[in-house]
Amino acid sequence: MEKINVAIIGYGMSASIFHAPIINEMEGFCLKKIYERKSQNSKKDYPDSEVVHNIEDLFTPDIDLIIVTTPNKVHYEHAKLCLLHNKNVVVEKPFTASVEEARELIDISIKKNLVLTVSHNRRWDGDFLTVKKVLRENILGEVMSIESNFPRFRPEINDKWKEKKDTATGLVYDIGSHLIDQMLSVYGDPLGVFADIRIQRPNAETDDFFQIIMDYGKFNILLRSDMVSNYRYPRFVVKGTKGTFVKYGSDVQERQLSKKLSIYDDRYGEDIPENYGIFKGNIGNLESEVIIKTVKGNYSAFYENLYDRIINKKILTISPESAERVIYIIEKCFESNEKRKYIKI
User: Fold this and answer.
1) Integer Cα distance of 64 and 302 in angstroms
2) What is the C-alpha separation between 181 and 95, in angstroms, rounded?
């Protein structure tokens, strides 16, 4: 099997949980190099990978793919540098801080015939895959509304870059980018958006609450997240003319990967039964309540598709153009919040 040699820029949470463990286990990839500014934290996890402290050391002829996992504000800078050195690139979400930056990177990748994609891995969350299955099987009838909730309980401010006042930090660029991408992947662009984005916690520097309404005409989608929810709230609520689907619990893969569970373990991606979804509504002429087992989560599908794109020239599941649309919607949400009005797309 032909190998893709990989380098990673940065070794924080996203690299150490969502990227390195997966590509290190997949047969088609070889994790050759990891760039860390000063530390060597990755060495204990990947002793066979070279740690470099000069980013230019990543651009050697043997490297085929570079994964950018640095803070959001430098995604553009690092992705552009990699593309200009003729490397295929994965950018951790969010793609960039602005649409202008995203479009420039896309243009460079096209001109150089390079693969460019963004790690919107939550398209392979088990809960979202289950919602897609329910929609595909049409058991709900005509969809009337969708709620996508991602509550957290972190009342204390985290002393990390994501919660500092800076370019492209805050909850909308973080969790919001995933929730927006999920809905765009199913329904495309909305007609418009209305957003309420706030700083709630004392001493917080950047947004830690949002409610975003995506208007699709006959139905709407509500995206919601905050940092002060310490109660059980449904991850998804999908209402239709034949009934309602409710799913509790978040995807298990992040916790499993952080505990170093192999992606080839039978338990990987499997939800716990108490978090299975429930459909309540009419089946035939009978009112029913049906438990729907959660579809198995599968973050490795992102890299399986990427391998096929680079080696076999297959179509990318997450095109850079689709990731650019996420940034466009985010910009419109901030415009809506600032103007306190509905913004057409």
Assistant:
1) 17
2) 11
Reported as a single tens digit per residue, the pLDDT across 313-335 is 999 999 999 999 999 999 999 99
- Tokens representing 113? 């015939």
Cβ-proximal residues to 104 (8 Å cutoff; 6+ apart), any chain: 76, 80
pLDDT in tens, 153-182: 999 998 888 889 999 999 999 999 999 999
The position carrying tokens 């996203």 is: 14
The model carries a pTM of 0.96
Q: Phi then psi for 234, rounded to 5 degrees?
A: -65, 140
Closest CA to 189 of 332, 72, 91: 332
CA 267 to CA 272: how far, in whole Å?
Answer: 10
Domain with CATH 3.30.360.10 in the chain: 122-298+329-344
Asked if residues 66 and 87 have their Cβ atoms less than 8 Å apart, the reply is yes
Per-residue pLDDT at 282:
78
- C-alpha to C-alpha distances, 245 to 91, 114, 158, 302, nearest whole angstrom: 33, 41, 34, 26
Question: Which of 109, 115, 21, 13 lies closest to 69 in space, CA to CA?
Answer: 13
CB distance 329 to 184 below 8 Å: yes
Closest CA to 198 of 209, 182, 184: 209
**Burial class of residue 169, CB neighbours in 10 A (0-12, 13-18, 19+):** buried
Question: Which residue shows structure tokens 């463990």?
Answer: 21
59: Cα separation from own chain's centroid: 26
Separation between Cα atoms, residue 286 and residue 248, nearest integer Å: 25
| DSSP letter (8 states) at residue 212 | E
Task: Assign domain 4-119 to its CATH architecture.
Answer: 3-Layer(aba) Sandwich (3.40)
CATH of domain 122-298+329-344: 3.30.360.10
Query: Which residues are registered as beta bridge partners of 311?
Result: none
Q: Where in the chain is the domain with CATH 3.40.50.720?
A: 4-119
Q: Token match 């060597």: residue?
A: 40
- Compute the distance between CA of residue 173 and CA of residue 18 in angstroms, rounded to an integer: 18
Asked whether 9 and 67 are in contact (CB, 8 A), the reply is: yes
